[in-house]
Amino acid sequence: MTHESKQDAANGSTPEDKHLRRCIVTRHSQKREKMLRFVVSDAGVVTPDLAGRLPGRGIWLSARRDVLETARARHLFSKAAQRSVTIPDDLYERIVIGLEMRVVQVLGLARRAGQARTGFVKCREWISSGHVGLVIHDEDASPDELRRLLSGPQRSLV
């Protein structure tokens, strides 16, 4: 048993606890993947850190809009940062845009790795072969075409 694991055992914490973060609003601990990280810039502006790479102490929130609004209303960012901070009016929109960009980047990587397909015929072949775990479609896609895509291969009578 290492010195670090002896300390953890004495404190009653587990190695998994090191990967948990506590929301400043709900006070619940969750895995980092389920939360949003914010940092305060040198200028005192709250900035979402969706990639988890910005320098500075992280301020963690559960990934829900009501939690974000509560943190803003109760001035919890200032309390967590122990200084006066500025919260941009469009913080929610910045988060949404940032998350959308991350999804597009991940899909691009998956496509280049052969783990994602685009196009009706290719997608239909993959769906019928059982390789699909998730189907993402445009919100204005035709419901009939989506049903046709998901119905599996069409058998010809000839």
Plain-language structure description:
The protein is an alpha+beta fold. It has two domains: 3-112, 2-Layer Sandwich (Hypothetical Cytosolic Protein, Chain: A); 120-150, no CATH class. Helices cover 41% and strands 12% of the residues. It has six helices and five strands. The strands form two sheets. A three-stranded antiparallel sheet has the order 4-3-5. A two-stranded antiparallel sheet has the order 1-2. The chain is elongated, with a radius of gyration of 22 Å. Mean pLDDT is 87; it is low at 2-8.
Summarize the structure.
The protein has 158 residues and is α+β, with helices and mostly antiparallel strands.
Average residue-wise pLDDT: 87
Order of helices and strands: HEEEEEHHHHH
The count of helical stretches stands at 6
Full CATH superfamily name of the largest domain = YlxR-like
Head-to-tail CA distance between termini? 70 Å
Q: Which overall shape is indicated by the principal axes computed on the Cα atoms?
A: elongated
CATH topology of the largest domain: Hypothetical Cytosolic Protein, Chain: A
The largest beta-sheet arranges its strands as 4-3-5
CATH class of the largest domain: Alpha Beta
* Secondary-structure-derived class: alpha+beta
Rg, Cα atoms, Å: 22 Å
Low-confidence stretches: 2-8
Q: What is the annotated CATH architecture of the largest domain?
A: 2-Layer Sandwich
Q: How much helix is in the residues?
A: 40-55%
